[in-house]
Structures are given as structure tokens and as C-alpha cells.
Amino acid sequence: MKKNVRALLIGVMFFAGLASAAWSQETDGLFLAQGYEAYRSGDWKTALFIFRRAVASKEGATEENYFMLIMTEIFAEDYRASISDADTFITLFPTSKYLSYVYYQRARDYFLLGQPKVALPEFTAFCSTWPDHELYPSALFWIAECFYGDFNFEAAKALYERIVKDFPTDPKAVDARYRIETIDQRGREEKILYLLKVTGEEYLAAKEEYEKQLSLNRVEGVVDLQNQMKSLSGEMLGLKAELDEERQKANAQEALINQLRTENAEARQVIQNTEPPPQPQAQAQAQAQTPPRKNAEVNMLLEKARLLQTILDSEKQGGGPK
Predict the structure, then answer these.
(1) CATH homologous superfamily for 2-113?
(2) Minimal CA–CA distance to 76: which of 57, 49, 99?
(3) Could you give the CA distance from residue 297 to residue 8 in angstroms, rounded to a whole number?
(4) 137: nearest Cα among 149, 123, 119
(5) Cβ-contact 81, 73 below 8 angstroms
(6) 87 by DSSP, 3-state: which?
(7) What residues contact 246, with CB distance under 8 A and at least 6 apart?
(8) How crowded is residue 23: how many other Cβ atoms within 10 Å of its Cβ?
(9) Mean pLDDT throughout 152-162?
(10) Rounded CA gap, 165 and 153, in Å?
């Protein structure tokens, strides 16, 4: 596009030179020629001064000079002045061969001023009016840029893809490919961010549920522990009662044993206090002489002593009362 515009500007300079020949009859033609030289060298300040002075006169207000002024203002980034002079050009030269270029540049000025909503219909009208124009791919690109700046990436991507497909050799095709990659990358990033957001929300929900469950488990654990303590306390009370009962039984057995020991001792004392046993040759005679009642008492004491001795022996063998 830049090569085409450069060729156009060379042509404009040629025709402007012809116009300056007539204009120089009343004004300084050499002064206007300095304006063209300043434009070629990029001295926009000087070029603006000269071309504005040229179009200020009736003779110098030609379509070539106006077009040169508009292009100089664009390169000088004076977009508001460029829009104003473009409006004047459209009014003064509605059939000019430069009209389409002026419409395109005015739309681009609006975009560069940060007014994409104004630039969008301007570019759209340009594409509708001049569908075969050399700047048509560029106009499509700027329409896509308007959508891109408005975050309408789907519409923007469709136009970028059309430029790449239908105008692969146009300089704007390179920029369009870059934008497509940017949109795709943005889509991937947004997908990752969405997944991170969903994952984060799921993590927070899981964490909240875990903490809630942990709290419930703690409460249930405390309740279970309390129930176990109550159960153990009951078991301990039961065991204590059994132990007390066994101790009472042991005390009763020990008292009985002590009583039997006392009675055994008494029985032994009684036996010892009886008469000594007679000699073997006189035993039969002594038994015959012993009164029956006394013999019965002795036998009863002896039997009781044997019983006590059996209990004591049994106690010794069993290890005593438990």
C-alpha cells in the first residue's frame, strides 16, 4: 500500500508542479517547490506551512495541493486538521480522482484519534463504494481493528482470515496473520484462566467441605469418646462392685478359717487334757473301764480335729483364700 501511495504522491507532485507553473505567475512558484522538497525530506513543519499558504489563495487551492496538505498533516500526526481539510476537499472536489483516497484517509484519521465507532462506518462505506480499490484490503484490516478494539474478536478474526485468504500478497496480510495468532493466543489464555477459575472454585468448595467434614468428625469423635468413657466408667463400677464382693467373700472365708483354727486349737487342748492312753496290754481293759459318755465326747472332738486338719491342709494346697 505504501508503494501505491508513494506512486500516487509522485503523480500528485507532477500535476501540482504543472499547477504551480500557472500559480507562479501571481505567486512565488519557487516557494511551492520548496514545499514539495520539504515533503520528500520529511520536513513536515516546513511542508505544512507552505501547503497551507498555498491552499489559502484561490489560485493555489487545487485538488493536488489540498491532497498534499492532507497527506502532510497525516505524516505530521495532525489528524484533526487532516479531517477538516478532507471535509473541505470532499466539498470542493466531489469528482476528483483522489476522492477515494481522501475518504480512506479521513476514516483512518478517526481511528487514529481513538474514535473507532466513527471510523467503522467510514471504512464500511469506502468498501461498499470502491470494492475494487487498491486500499480495499487495508480498509478491511481497519474494520477488523475496530472490532478487535471493541473486544469483538470473533468478527475481527473473520475479517483477518478473509484478508489472509483473499489478499495474501497485500502488506496488511502480514499484520492480519499476527492478529489471528494474537486472538488464538488470547483464546487459549482465556481458556486457561477459565479452567483455573473453575479449578480454584472447586478447590475452595472442596476445602470448605473438608473443613466442614473435619469439624463434624471432631464433634462425632468427641461424642464417641464421651460414650466410650461412660461405658468404661460403667464397666469400672461393675468391676469395683465385683471386687468388693470377692473381698467380702475372702474376708468371710478368712474369718471362718480363723474360727476353725481356734476350734482346732481348743480341740487339741481338750485332747491334751484327757488321760494318757493306757499301755497296749492294758488298752482293752481301759476302754472297758472308760465311761461311754466320756468316750463319745472324745471321739467327737477327735473327729472335729480331723475335719479342721483336712480344711487346713486343703487351704495350704490351694494357696489360701483368694
Answers:
(1) Tetratricopeptide repeat domain (1.25.40.10)
(2) 49
(3) 162
(4) 123
(5) yes
(6) helix
(7) 322
(8) 22
(9) 96
(10) 18
Q: Are 127 and 116 contacting, i.e. CB atoms less than 8 angstroms apart?
A: no
Can you tell me the distance from the alpha carbon of 137 to that of 165, in angstroms, rounded to the nearest whole number?
11
Q: Which of 101-115, 125-139, 201-215, 286-300 has the lowest mean pLDDT?
A: 286-300
Model-wide pTM > 0.85: no
Closest among 114, 109, 37 to 77, alpha carbons compared: 109
pLDDT of residue 169: 96
Q: Which residue, among 64, 72, 67, has the nearest Cα to 86 in the 3D structure?
A: 67
> Where do the domains of the chain lie?
2-113
Q: Which residue do the cell numbers 466513527 mark?
A: 118
CA 115 to chain centre: 37
Residue at grid coordinates 476514516: 107
| DSSP-based three-state secondary structure for 282 | helix
Query: How does DSSP classify residue 43?
Result: -
Please give the average per-residue pLDDT across 198-221, as a whole number: 76
Asked if the model's pLDDT at residue 84 lies above 70, the reply is: yes
Torsion of CA 214, 218, 221, 227, to 10 degrees: -150
Report residue 130: phi and psi, to 5°: -130, 70
- Do residues 69 and 48 make contact, with C-beta atoms less than 8 angstroms apart? yes
Contacts 24+ apart (CB under 8 A), 150-153: 150/116, 153/183, 153/186, 153/187
The H-assigned helical ranges of the chain are 2-23, 29-41, 44-55, 63-75, 79-92, 99-112, 116-129, 136-149, 153-166, 171-273, 283-289, 292-318
80 vs 47: CA distance, rounded Å: 17
Residue 285 pLDDT class (50, 70, 90 cuts): low
Residue 290 above 60 pLDDT? no
